[in-house]
Write a structure and sequence with these properties.
Strand content of chain B: under 5%
Number of strands of chain A: 7
Helix content of chain B: over 70%
Order of helices and strands of chain B: HH
Order of helices and strands of chain A: HEEHEHHEEHHEE
Helix content of chain A: 40-55%
Distance between the termini of chain B: 30 Å
Oligomer: heterodimer
Number of domains of chain A: 2
Number of helices of chain B: 2
Radius of gyration of chain A: 23 Å
CATH architecture of the largest domain in chain A: 3-Layer(aba) Sandwich
Structural class of chain A: alpha/beta
CATH topology of the largest domain in chain A: Glutaredoxin
Radius of gyration of chain B: 15 Å
Largest interface: A-B, 12 and 11 residues
Distance between the termini of chain A: 67 Å
Shape of chain B: elongated
Largest sheet of chain A: 5 strands, mixed
Largest sheet of chain B: none
Shape of chain A: elongated
Chain lengths: 223, 69
């Protein structure tokens, strides 16, 4: 009986070791590197839009990278977030060199993914969540059926953060992510209405000068 | 409740309550992204328009044909 329990304990310890070895929630893959295998889902962060490498977008790119790392930590051991670098062994600190970060992002490989999966560069960066192993050798197969694509190009940082939080919830709770339905005409009309009213609301200045009392209400800052 | 006689004060009360409810709905409509809950946004915007149209109609009716002085 003791021997059986001992054997069982050894097997459990071995399994735990294997699981610990696999426990890598985010992978920063170099051009010659390989995406780790054996995960339920792979969340690829693809930067195909050259505008995101410009000087004025570098802050957003850095912010996206930080959000990628946080996302990778939050989605658990069964799921992997993937970021592509040009060179090997590159990881960036939170206060890293933004110009260097933009140079080291492997846009070329991302563009190959975008081209193969027919993703619009203008809407990039993308987050593609797929349960199929993302190997460049599968490029000719196109976007796997069990994939969900999210366009971050026109989103504000807080909206990207909200989206990644939702994806984290879906991955942790259900183990998969469903592709959102395309926004209908009425949703786009509502969004346009909201945008118009918001911009109108920010276009005024209200000033009161009444002797010793002065009040100055300025227009809000649009994000 | 049937209104026996209109008075400007009643209109002011109606516009005040309608304005508060409409402002709350409009604030919620404007501060959250439409994509988070499109149907709720549609209802909120519809409510704001409905309040505006309803209060305008009531006021128009009551003021119809009246002349100041």
């Amino acid at each position: 009986m003791k021997k059986m329990l001992l054997s069982l304990a050894v097997v459990c310890a071995a399994l735990a070791c294997c699981k610990a070895g696999l426990a890598q929630e985010s992978a920063e893959v170099s051009r010659n590197g390989k995406v780790p295998e054996g995960y339920q889902t792979y969340s690829l962060f693809l930067v195909c839009n050259p505008q995101w490498l410009d000087q004025d977008k570098r802050g957003d790119l850095h912010n996206l990278y930080i959000q990628f790392r946080n996302f990778g930590r939050a989605i658990g051991d069964d799921h992997l977030a993937v970021w592509f670098w040009k060179t090997q062994g590159r990881t960036r600190d939170d206060d890293g060199n933004l110009g260097q970060l933009a140079q080291d992002v492997d846009v070329e490989l991302s563009v190959r993914f975008c081209k193969s999966w027919k993703l619009k560069s203008s809407a990039s960066p993308h987050v593609v969540v797929t349960s199929t192993y993302p190997s460049p050798s599968y490029f000719s197969w196109g976007l796997p059926k069990n994939s969900a694509v999210f366009e971050l190009g026109n989103m504000a940082p807080k909206d990207i953060s909200a989206l990644l939080t939702k994806l984290t919830d879906d991955l942790v709770q259900t183990g998969h992510v469903t592709q959102p339905a395309a926004a209908g005409l009425w949703v786009r009309l509502l969004e346009a209405t909201q945008k118009t009213i918001n911009s109108f609301g920010c276009a005024w200045t209200f000033k009161i000068e009444a002797g010793p009392v002065n009040a100055n209400l300025k227009s809000c800052k649009s994000s | 409740m049937a209104i026996r006689k209109w008075h400007p004060g009643k209109l002011i009360i109606l516009w005040t309550w309608g304005g508060v409810a409409g402002a709350l709905a409009l604030t919620d409509f404007l501060t959250r992204p439409v994509s988070s809950a499109p149907l709720v946004h549609l209802l909120e915007f519809g409510f704001v328009l409905l309040v505006l149209v309803a209060l305008s109609t009531i006021t128009w009716h009551w003021l119809g044909g009246r002349e100041s002085g």
